[in-house]
Amino acid sequence: MKKILTLLLVMTMILSVPFSKSVNATVLENTENSALELLGKIGVIELSNDAMAENIVTREDFALYLANLLGVDTNLEATQRYFSDVAMTAYGAKAIESLTELGIISRPADDKFRPDDNIALEEAVKMLCQAMGYGEYSNVRGGYPMGYLKTARECGFLISVADEKAIKVKEIARLIFEASQVGMYEPVIIGNDSMEYTASSKNTLLSLYHDIYFDEGTVNGVSGRTINFDTPPEDGIMYIDGMQFYADEDVENSEYLGEYVKYFYRYKSTDKLPRVIYLAKTKTENVKFEISNFVSFDYDEITYFASDESSKEQREKLEDAVIVYNGYPVDKDITRLFDELNKGFISLKDSDNDKIFDLIVIDNYETVVASGVDKDKMLIYSETGNGNYLDCKGYNNVKIYDGNMNPLEIDEIKAENVLSVAKTYNSNEHITIIVSSIVVNGTLDFVKSGKTTVAKINGVEYTVDKKYAEDFKAEVKNGNSYYYGCDFMNEIAFVSAEVSKSMSYAYVIDTTYIKDGFDEKVLVKVLDPNGKITDIAFAKNIKIDGRRYKNEPKKAQSAFLALGGGELKATMMRYTLDAEGNFKEIDTPFLNEPYENDRSSLTPIYGYTDDFSVKYYRDYRIGLRAYMTADTPVYCVPYDPVYGEIEQSEVMVQPLKTNLVMRIDAYYPSNAYTTNVMNEFADVVAVRYKYSVLPANAYDKTFVLVDEIHESVNQNGDVVNVLCGYTRGARVEYELDSRIEIGDVEQGDLVQLNYDVWGKIMPSYTAGQPDIVVLYDYSLWQGKRPDSSTGVWQGIVDGGRCYLYNGSADSQYYNNATQLSFGFANECVGNTVRFGYNSGSDFDEAFRVSGISVIVYDASKKEEERVYVGSLNDVVGYKSVGDECSAILVQTSHTSAKQLVVYK
What we know:
It is a single chain. This protein is mainly beta and 904 residues long. The chain is built from 14 helices and 52 strands. The longest helix is centred in the N-terminal third of the chain and has 14 residues, at 2-15. It is flat, with a radius of gyration of 35 Å. The protein starts with a helix and ends with a strand.
């Protein structure tokens, strides 16, 4: 009977047609991005940066992704080892164990999983088919690999990839994304003695393991906006095809209004409403253009210029188009509405995905320059005076954002902020206000009129708001410098008081008053914009913070110092020079009223509680308030100069985009400065650091394998030592000044050096730490496993690893300390090196090493040839030579090898 049932089951599987997704397949705008974003959001594929999407996926990687999709807690430790080449401590160990127990991964005769091999497309497809219940069906269809590939193709999740033997993360994400939406292949009982398998209409990998479902439809309402004549949704609510959903913050975006989308939502029977967690735009032919390029509207056609520069008209056909104006539909006075458009954007949308434009979304803004607010009455007063104000209290829905569309409260609007205001048409339904902090300080080169009014400022052209253009031209004069306020579209909306001409930045180090009986002068030692320390004198006629001093050097110096509370403040300043190279005008960060105002004065963003406020500097920002551009100049100066006076080699000025050698990952006394308190970005940054806590090694210069140390004569004629060696596959030569003690460093040693802000070698300056740290002392260990006898290697056991640490013997530091692991080569397999912690006869760990540099010390060669750049061919494994195998040191960053040092 059992045999008959099995045969019946097989025949039923062959005859049944299981292949369909839960909804009809729709082409998405960018499927790979959608896949990465959704899978990242639910913890299936988590990438630390966008570049990782281009990485090639290994078998271990894919096992981890698939186990995450199946709800396995892959952070748990594995308890059973099924494969000889998968260590219990491997990052995918728990995933591989779980998939094996589920029957998704099978065990071959040699008990090898090959975790570091690239996953092939056919292998990934087979594992997905098994997870979805299509394993037996695929075997009936021809087995591995063709039967599984046929199943995937008919189910609709087989994708094309650039290389089926080397699949990128973004490609594997799309494969998983598509497969996770296919109905599971599930048994259905027919009568008492037969069974039929069919694709589920509701159960998918997403629904079974993540309570996530999906559908397609039109976004009718979001964040106070609607395309229907109904009440707009409240914050956190979204309408799709008339149904209500909760919406995650990143989904609740007005850009989705009227879009035909594929949406993914979480729902359990106990939930009040389903929650949309992700939206993917479909590949509909939407069009968006600026209102300034609008030409005409008829009910079945709209005309516009293709771009700002083009005079060619573009026409688009419309069919029963709904018009949504500033977030609410309009069905009256349409002609007048289009006649009164000011500035903003018009979007043409195909809301039902039928290839015809049926929705026009207009965001039309009026410009208001704020003079103040009344929070209680919800009033915003206008700079135009005469009691003009914007009454927000009269609207059912008020949205206020900054230029990056982050929500604001009304009392965060400041005087002279430029507001772009969008109100619903002939109703009090909705008002949106975008608050711009964009300001420009500079000299007006010229103004030209045409289709638009353009002002050229410091060589850059800006459009002037058309309603402000005539007033602007009347208020300005070519050659003068002003403070200009811009809206979020970067158009000038007002101009304010004249400001001083372009000034340079400098960091003040010291001030000296000199009187020799015949003459008196003031010298200021500064770090100039070129990164040079120089002394510059006050001109006899100098202006400081708006006040003029004529032939009064002592008084001028007193005023300069008085601004810092009566003593020198080491700080930033701005300046101009006269023809003799003396300071003609100085602007300090200390506001000297009534001679200057904060529209044109250098101002510290964090104020002065000490020389600086202690804030961190990293990733284009200081603390939580000061944002920088890639071109923001950063002045780096020590506040603990080793020999009393700051030396040239201790300072640096670079724009942020140049990746400063000095990595400021810790807290440093820092401040950011602006020339206008309304400015969104900092104009200049000053950082003060201690040598004792300066990150000692930029990652690309971390370790050096020493070749030789010899004497040489430097450019000043001094005799110096030169350390020669290799790091990251390149030969390096470092000049060591007399302060640096070499100690017992010699050929074959792997050493760690300290670098100053210029990347030059410097002394340690840390008590108890040598100037050159020997990480691996070849004369002591001769290729053997190091121990803790020198205090460098701690011998900490973390899965058998012996590694270096920075300041702590806690094993957790393996992931964020020096990360240098020691072992003996077992063998090289493909692009991996296997090694044992204590002997090459063991296989404890493997590193993927394709594309990394290899540097070698070979004791069998002549002395002058022993240290060189090598390759993986220099790694001699135990399996070929026994105990004479190579000793290797691997520098890693988390799970990635950075460089390999080989001792032969």
